[in-house]
Protein backbone atom coordinates (compact mmCIF):
# COMPACT_ATOMS: atom_id res chain seq x y z
CA UNK A 1 0.00 0.00 0.00
CA UNK A 2 1.46 3.35 -1.04
CA UNK A 3 1.77 6.29 1.32
CA UNK A 4 0.51 9.76 0.40
CA UNK A 5 4.13 10.78 -0.11
CA UNK A 6 4.65 8.06 -2.70
CA UNK A 7 1.38 9.02 -4.40
CA UNK A 8 2.59 12.62 -4.57
CA UNK A 9 5.85 11.53 -6.13
CA UNK A 10 3.94 9.61 -8.80
CA UNK A 11 1.94 12.62 -9.98
CA UNK A 12 2.41 13.78 -13.57
CA UNK A 13 5.14 16.39 -13.20
CA UNK A 14 4.26 18.07 -16.47
CA UNK A 15 0.84 18.96 -15.13
CA UNK A 16 1.74 19.36 -11.47
CA UNK A 17 4.21 22.22 -11.99
CA UNK A 18 2.33 25.18 -10.39
CA UNK A 19 2.30 27.46 -13.44
CA UNK A 20 1.12 24.71 -15.78
CA UNK A 21 -1.40 23.48 -13.23
CA UNK A 22 -2.81 27.02 -13.02
CA UNK A 23 -2.92 27.31 -16.82
CA UNK A 24 -4.71 24.02 -17.34
CA UNK A 25 -7.11 24.72 -14.47
CA UNK A 26 -8.02 28.08 -16.02
CA UNK A 27 -8.36 26.67 -19.53
CA UNK A 28 -10.53 23.79 -18.32
CA UNK A 29 -13.10 26.33 -17.10
CA UNK A 30 -13.59 28.09 -20.43
CA UNK A 31 -13.70 27.49 -24.18
CA UNK A 32 -10.54 29.48 -24.90
CA UNK A 33 -8.50 32.35 -23.53
CA UNK A 34 -6.10 34.81 -25.06
CA UNK A 35 -2.50 35.34 -24.01
CA UNK A 36 -3.22 38.47 -21.98
CA UNK A 37 -5.99 36.90 -19.93
CA UNK A 38 -3.81 33.91 -19.08
CA UNK A 39 -1.03 36.26 -18.06
CA UNK A 40 -3.43 38.12 -15.74
CA UNK A 41 -4.90 34.90 -14.35
CA UNK A 42 -1.55 33.30 -13.54
CA UNK A 43 0.67 36.32 -12.89
CA UNK A 44 3.39 34.89 -15.14
CA UNK A 45 5.69 37.03 -17.24
CA UNK A 46 5.32 36.96 -21.03
CA UNK A 47 8.43 34.83 -21.46
CA UNK A 48 7.59 32.33 -18.75
CA UNK A 49 4.01 32.02 -19.99
CA UNK A 50 5.21 31.33 -23.54
CA UNK A 51 7.59 28.64 -22.30
CA UNK A 52 4.92 26.90 -20.21
CA UNK A 53 2.37 27.02 -23.01
CA UNK A 54 4.91 25.58 -25.45
CA UNK A 55 5.52 22.64 -23.13
CA UNK A 56 1.81 22.02 -22.81
CA UNK A 57 1.36 22.26 -26.56
CA UNK A 58 4.21 19.80 -27.18
CA UNK A 59 2.45 17.35 -24.86
CA UNK A 60 -0.80 17.79 -26.77
CA UNK A 61 -2.63 19.31 -23.81
CA UNK A 62 -3.39 22.71 -25.37
CA UNK A 63 -3.82 24.16 -28.85
CA UNK A 64 -2.30 27.55 -29.61
CA UNK A 65 -3.72 29.57 -32.49
CA UNK A 66 -2.14 32.78 -33.65
CA UNK A 67 -4.37 35.04 -35.67
CA UNK A 68 -5.01 38.66 -36.48
CA UNK A 69 -7.97 40.46 -34.96
CA UNK A 70 -8.55 43.96 -36.34
CA UNK A 71 -5.02 43.89 -37.76
CA UNK A 72 -3.53 43.11 -34.35
CA UNK A 73 -1.87 39.79 -33.50
CA UNK A 74 -3.90 37.67 -31.10
CA UNK A 75 -2.93 34.36 -29.54
CA UNK A 76 -5.83 32.10 -28.54
CA UNK A 77 -5.21 29.11 -26.33
CA UNK A 78 -7.62 26.23 -25.98
CA UNK A 79 -7.37 23.08 -23.91
CA UNK A 80 -7.53 19.86 -25.92
CA UNK A 81 -9.70 16.87 -25.08
CA UNK A 82 -6.57 15.11 -23.84
CA UNK A 83 -5.74 18.15 -21.70
CA UNK A 84 -9.24 18.35 -20.26
CA UNK A 85 -9.18 14.70 -19.27
CA UNK A 86 -5.68 15.00 -17.85
CA UNK A 87 -6.40 18.01 -15.63
CA UNK A 88 -9.64 16.52 -14.38
CA UNK A 89 -7.86 13.27 -13.49
CA UNK A 90 -5.02 15.22 -11.89
CA UNK A 91 -7.36 17.10 -9.56
CA UNK A 92 -9.12 13.85 -8.67
CA UNK A 93 -5.75 12.36 -7.79
CA UNK A 94 -4.88 15.39 -5.66
CA UNK A 95 -8.18 15.17 -3.79
CA UNK A 96 -7.65 11.45 -3.21
CA UNK A 97 -4.13 12.08 -1.95
CA UNK A 98 -5.44 14.70 0.44
CA UNK A 99 -8.07 12.32 1.80
CA UNK A 100 -5.49 9.54 2.16
CA UNK A 101 -3.09 11.94 3.85
CA UNK A 102 -5.75 12.96 6.37
CA UNK A 103 -6.55 9.30 7.05
CA UNK A 104 -2.84 8.42 7.25
CA UNK A 105 -2.29 11.20 9.76
CA UNK A 106 -5.21 9.96 11.89
CA UNK A 107 -3.89 6.40 11.89
CA UNK A 108 -0.22 7.19 12.53
CA UNK B 1 -3.09 25.54 -2.42
CA UNK B 2 -6.53 24.54 -3.62
CA UNK B 3 -7.96 27.99 -2.82
CA UNK B 4 -5.69 29.72 -5.34
CA UNK B 5 -6.61 27.26 -8.08
CA UNK B 6 -10.29 27.40 -7.11
CA UNK B 7 -10.13 31.15 -7.53
CA UNK B 8 -8.38 30.86 -10.90
CA UNK B 9 -11.00 28.39 -12.10
CA UNK B 10 -13.85 30.60 -10.90
CA UNK B 11 -12.45 33.78 -12.46
CA UNK B 12 -11.71 32.04 -15.78
CA UNK B 13 -15.26 30.64 -15.91
CA UNK B 14 -16.79 34.05 -15.15
CA UNK B 15 -14.29 36.44 -16.70
CA UNK B 16 -16.78 38.77 -18.38
CA UNK B 17 -19.29 38.57 -15.56
CA UNK B 18 -16.72 39.80 -13.04
CA UNK B 19 -15.78 42.87 -15.09
CA UNK B 20 -17.95 45.10 -12.96
CA UNK B 21 -17.36 48.45 -14.64
CA UNK B 22 -19.42 47.20 -17.60
CA UNK B 23 -22.47 47.41 -15.34
CA UNK B 24 -21.91 51.00 -14.28
CA UNK B 25 -23.36 52.60 -17.46
CA UNK B 26 -26.34 50.27 -17.16
CA UNK B 27 -26.90 51.32 -13.56
CA UNK B 28 -26.54 55.00 -14.46
CA UNK B 29 -29.11 54.60 -17.22
CA UNK B 30 -31.56 52.92 -14.84
CA UNK B 31 -31.16 55.73 -12.30
CA UNK B 32 -31.58 58.38 -14.99
CA UNK B 33 -34.72 56.77 -16.41
CA UNK B 34 -36.16 56.49 -12.89
CA UNK B 35 -35.56 60.16 -12.19
CA UNK B 36 -36.96 61.07 -15.59
CA UNK B 37 -40.06 58.93 -14.96
CA UNK B 38 -40.72 60.77 -11.69
CA UNK B 39 -41.28 64.03 -13.57
CA UNK B 40 -42.53 62.86 -16.95
CA UNK B 41 -45.75 60.90 -17.35
CA UNK B 42 -48.26 59.93 -19.95
CA UNK B 43 -48.23 59.34 -23.72
CA UNK B 44 -47.14 62.92 -24.51
CA UNK B 45 -43.89 62.73 -22.53
CA UNK B 46 -40.82 63.75 -24.51
CA UNK B 47 -38.55 60.72 -24.89
CA UNK B 48 -35.50 62.62 -26.19
CA UNK B 49 -33.67 62.58 -22.86
CA UNK B 50 -34.05 58.85 -22.16
CA UNK B 51 -33.14 57.99 -25.74
CA UNK B 52 -30.00 60.12 -25.56
CA UNK B 53 -29.17 58.58 -22.19
CA UNK B 54 -29.56 55.10 -23.68
CA UNK B 55 -27.19 55.98 -26.50
CA UNK B 56 -24.71 57.41 -24.01
CA UNK B 57 -24.93 54.32 -21.83
CA UNK B 58 -24.40 52.06 -24.84
CA UNK B 59 -21.30 54.04 -25.81
CA UNK B 60 -19.92 53.87 -22.25
CA UNK B 61 -20.67 50.13 -22.13
CA UNK B 62 -18.69 49.63 -25.34
CA UNK B 63 -15.80 51.76 -24.06
CA UNK B 64 -15.55 49.85 -20.77
CA UNK B 65 -15.60 46.63 -22.78
CA UNK B 66 -12.63 47.84 -24.81
CA UNK B 67 -10.82 48.83 -21.62
CA UNK B 68 -11.25 45.35 -20.19
CA UNK B 69 -10.20 43.69 -23.45
CA UNK B 70 -6.98 45.72 -23.49
CA UNK B 71 -6.20 45.47 -19.77
CA UNK B 72 -7.43 41.97 -18.97
CA UNK B 73 -7.70 40.12 -22.26
CA UNK B 74 -10.56 37.91 -23.36
CA UNK B 75 -11.84 34.58 -22.19
CA UNK B 76 -14.47 32.80 -24.24
CA UNK B 77 -17.14 30.90 -22.31
CA UNK B 78 -17.95 27.29 -23.06
CA UNK B 79 -20.96 26.59 -25.28
CA UNK B 80 -22.79 25.19 -22.28
CA UNK B 81 -22.23 28.42 -20.29
CA UNK B 82 -23.37 30.57 -23.22
CA UNK B 83 -26.51 28.50 -23.73
CA UNK B 84 -27.46 28.66 -20.06
CA UNK B 85 -26.90 32.41 -20.02
CA UNK B 86 -29.05 32.84 -23.13
CA UNK B 87 -31.91 30.78 -21.70
CA UNK B 88 -31.69 32.61 -18.40
CA UNK B 89 -31.82 36.03 -20.07
CA UNK B 90 -34.90 35.01 -22.10
CA UNK B 91 -36.73 33.62 -19.08
CA UNK B 92 -36.04 36.64 -16.90
CA UNK B 93 -36.86 39.10 -19.67
CA UNK B 94 -40.29 37.51 -20.01
CA UNK B 95 -40.75 37.47 -16.25
CA UNK B 96 -39.71 41.12 -16.06
CA UNK B 97 -42.33 42.10 -18.64
CA UNK B 98 -44.98 40.20 -16.73
CA UNK B 99 -43.85 41.80 -13.49
CA UNK B 100 -43.96 45.27 -15.04
CA UNK B 101 -47.54 44.61 -16.14
CA UNK B 102 -48.41 43.34 -12.67
CA UNK B 103 -46.98 46.44 -11.00
CA UNK B 104 -48.71 48.77 -13.42
CA UNK B 105 -52.09 47.04 -13.64
CA UNK B 106 -52.67 45.61 -10.18
CA UNK B 107 -52.01 47.10 -6.78
CA UNK B 108 -50.06 44.42 -4.98
CA UNK B 109 -48.11 45.06 -1.79
CA UNK B 110 -44.78 43.89 -3.27
CA UNK B 111 -42.80 45.28 -6.17
CA UNK B 112 -42.96 42.43 -8.70
CA UNK B 113 -40.31 43.94 -10.97
CA UNK B 114 -37.88 44.31 -8.06
CA UNK B 115 -38.57 40.73 -6.99
CA UNK B 116 -37.87 39.41 -10.49
CA UNK B 117 -34.67 41.44 -10.65
CA UNK B 118 -33.56 40.04 -7.29
CA UNK B 119 -34.33 36.52 -8.52
CA UNK B 120 -32.30 37.16 -11.70
CA UNK B 121 -29.34 38.38 -9.66
CA UNK B 122 -29.56 35.36 -7.40
CA UNK B 123 -29.82 32.96 -10.35
CA UNK B 124 -26.75 34.63 -11.87
CA UNK B 125 -24.92 34.22 -8.56
CA UNK B 126 -25.96 30.57 -8.28
CA UNK B 127 -24.91 29.74 -11.83
CA UNK B 128 -21.57 31.59 -11.50
CA UNK B 129 -20.59 29.85 -8.26
CA UNK B 130 -21.44 26.31 -9.38
CA UNK B 131 -17.83 25.15 -9.00
CA UNK B 132 -17.18 26.98 -5.72
CA UNK B 133 -20.35 26.30 -3.71
CA UNK B 134 -18.71 26.21 -0.30
CA UNK B 135 -17.00 29.56 -0.78
CA UNK B 136 -19.72 31.08 -2.98
CA UNK B 137 -20.58 34.11 -0.88
CA UNK B 138 -16.97 34.99 -0.05
CA UNK B 139 -15.80 34.58 -3.64
CA UNK B 140 -18.65 36.47 -5.35
CA UNK B 141 -20.36 38.58 -2.68
CA UNK B 142 -21.58 41.56 -4.70
CA UNK B 143 -24.29 39.71 -6.63
CA UNK B 144 -25.55 37.94 -3.51
CA UNK B 145 -25.69 41.14 -1.44
CA UNK B 146 -27.36 43.04 -4.27
CA UNK B 147 -30.00 40.32 -4.67
CA UNK B 148 -30.83 40.33 -0.96
CA UNK B 149 -30.99 44.13 -0.81
CA UNK B 150 -33.32 44.45 -3.79
CA UNK B 151 -35.53 41.62 -2.56
CA UNK B 152 -35.86 43.27 0.84
CA UNK B 153 -36.88 46.67 -0.52
CA UNK B 154 -39.32 44.97 -2.90
CA UNK B 155 -41.19 43.14 -0.15
CA UNK B 156 -41.00 45.75 2.65
CA UNK B 157 -44.49 47.08 1.77
CA UNK B 158 -45.93 43.72 2.87
CA UNK B 159 -44.95 44.72 6.39
CA UNK B 160 -46.55 48.13 6.00
CA UNK B 161 -43.27 49.93 5.32
CA UNK B 162 -43.70 52.41 2.47
CA UNK B 163 -40.01 53.31 2.61
CA UNK B 164 -40.05 55.38 -0.61
CA UNK B 165 -42.30 57.98 0.99
CA UNK B 166 -39.55 58.79 3.49
CA UNK B 167 -37.52 60.03 0.51
CA UNK B 168 -40.38 62.12 -0.83
CA UNK B 169 -41.11 59.70 -3.68
CA UNK B 170 -44.64 58.85 -4.74
CA UNK B 171 -44.15 55.73 -6.81
CA UNK B 172 -42.96 52.44 -5.32
CA UNK B 173 -41.95 50.98 -8.70
CA UNK B 174 -39.90 54.03 -9.72
CA UNK B 175 -38.23 54.06 -6.31
CA UNK B 176 -37.31 50.39 -6.53
CA UNK B 177 -36.01 50.95 -10.05
CA UNK B 178 -33.82 53.79 -8.79
CA UNK B 179 -32.42 51.61 -6.01
CA UNK B 180 -31.76 48.85 -8.55
CA UNK B 181 -29.73 51.33 -10.61
CA UNK B 182 -27.71 52.46 -7.59
CA UNK B 183 -27.11 48.87 -6.51
CA UNK B 184 -25.96 47.95 -10.03
CA UNK B 185 -23.44 50.81 -9.96
CA UNK B 186 -22.11 49.94 -6.50
CA UNK B 187 -21.94 46.20 -7.23
CA UNK B 188 -20.14 46.94 -10.48
CA UNK B 189 -17.50 49.10 -8.82
CA UNK B 190 -17.10 46.54 -6.02
CA UNK B 191 -16.69 43.76 -8.57
CA UNK B 192 -14.10 45.74 -10.50
CA UNK B 193 -12.02 46.47 -7.39
CA UNK B 194 -12.14 42.77 -6.48
CA UNK B 195 -11.02 41.52 -9.88
CA UNK B 196 -8.19 44.07 -10.04
CA UNK B 197 -6.98 42.88 -6.64
CA UNK B 198 -7.47 39.20 -7.51
CA UNK B 199 -5.54 39.27 -10.77
CA UNK B 200 -1.81 39.88 -10.34
CA UNK B 201 -0.16 42.34 -12.72
CA UNK B 202 2.65 39.91 -13.51
CA UNK B 203 6.10 38.73 -12.56
CA UNK B 204 8.85 41.33 -12.24
Strand count, sense and barrel status of the largest sheet of chain B are: none
Cα shape of chain A: elongated
Structural class of chain A: alpha+beta
Summed up, the helix count of chain A is 6
Rounded to the nearest angstrom, the distance between the terminal CA atoms of chain A is 14 Å
Strands of chain A, count = 3
| Secondary structure tally: strands of chain B | 1
* Most strands sheet of chain A: 3 strands, antiparallel
Radius of gyration of chain B: 18 Å
Note the overall shape of chain B: globular
SSE ordering of chain A:
HHHEHHEEH
Beta-strand content of chain A:
15-25%
- How would you state the average pLDDT of chain A, rounded? 90
Derived structural class of chain B: mainly alpha
The helix-strand sequence of chain B is: HHHEHHHHH
Helix content of chain B: over 70%
Ranges of chain A where pLDDT stays below 50 over 5 or more residues in a row are none
Largest interface: A-B, 26 and 26 residues
Rg on CA atoms of chain A, Å:
16 Å
Low-confidence stretches of chain B: none
Q: What's the short version?
A:
The complex is a heterodimer of chains A (108) and B (204). With 108 residues, chain A is an alpha+beta fold. Chain A contains 6 helices and 3 strands.
Topology:
The complex is a heterodimer of chains A (about 110) and B (about 200).
Chain A: H1 4-9, H2 13-16, H3 18-28, E1 32-34, H4 35-42, H5 46-58, E2 62-69, E3 72-79, H6 81-107
Antiparallel strand pairs in A: 1-3, 2-3
Chain B: H1 2-13, H2 23-39, H3 48-72, E1 75-76, H4 79-105, H5 112-128, H6 136-139, H7 141-155, H8 172-198
Describe this entry's structure for a reader.
- The complex is a heterodimer of chains A (108) and B (204).
- By secondary structure, chain A is α+β, with helices and mostly antiparallel strands.
- Helix content of chain A is 64%, strand content 18%.
- Chain A is built from 6 helices and 3 strands, in the order H-H-H-E-H-H-E-E-H.
- A 3-stranded antiparallel β-sheet of chain A has the order 1-3-2.
- In chain A, a hairpin with a 2-residue loop joins strand 2 (62-69) and strand 3 (72-79).
- The radius of gyration of chain A is 16 Å and the shape is elongated.
- The model of chain A has no long low-confidence stretch (mean pLDDT 90).
- Chain B has 204 residues and is an all-alpha fold.
- Chain B has one domain.
- Chain B has helices spanning 2-13, 23-39, 48-72, 79-105, 112-128, 136-139, 141-155, 172-198; one strand at residues 75-76.
- In chain B, helix 2 runs antiparallel to helix 8 (172-198) and helix 5 packs antiparallel against helix 7 (141-155).
- The mean pLDDT of chain B is 88.
- The chains are: A alpha+beta (108), B mainly alpha (204).
- Chains A and B meet through helix 3, strand 1 and helix 4 of A and helix 1 and strand 1 of B.
